[in-house]
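Table S2 (text version). Query chain:
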Amino acid sequence: MTERAASSGGSARQGAGRIAWQLLLTLWVGAVWSLHFILLPGLEQMGLAPLLIEEAASVLRPSVMLITVAAASVQLFQLAVRRVGWSDLRVQMLILVLMAGGAFFALRLQDNPLYGIFCYLVVAFAGLVLAVQPRPDEERD
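Corresponding structure-token output:
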């Protein structure tokens, strides 16, 4: 294998990692924010019955949180492959997302639905903090 072919293969893998990071981040952060701040208020604005909106939220929120936990796990794995330390804010935010996602599913059995909404909002704002961080392949200034 020539040196040029080896270097182009490495840059192709780096490009794929960059694309995967951005797509996963867009998928789960966009889904969390869109559901809570656009779709559910839009259903309420349309005049649907509150019970119908609650039913839609009770079906959609766990699906979005499952996607979030899966995507955050893949992103945490990407950071682990790059040997990023625990002190990195991206790692801390992803661990917070995974813990809040686990708490969301563990607290679904409680009578008070506010615990689940709190966990959902923690995930939403941790995703927002993560979205403004540089990608793992970018150098910090």
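Notes on Table S2: The two ends are 35 Å apart (CA to CA). The helical segments are 3-45, 50-81, 89-106, 114-131.
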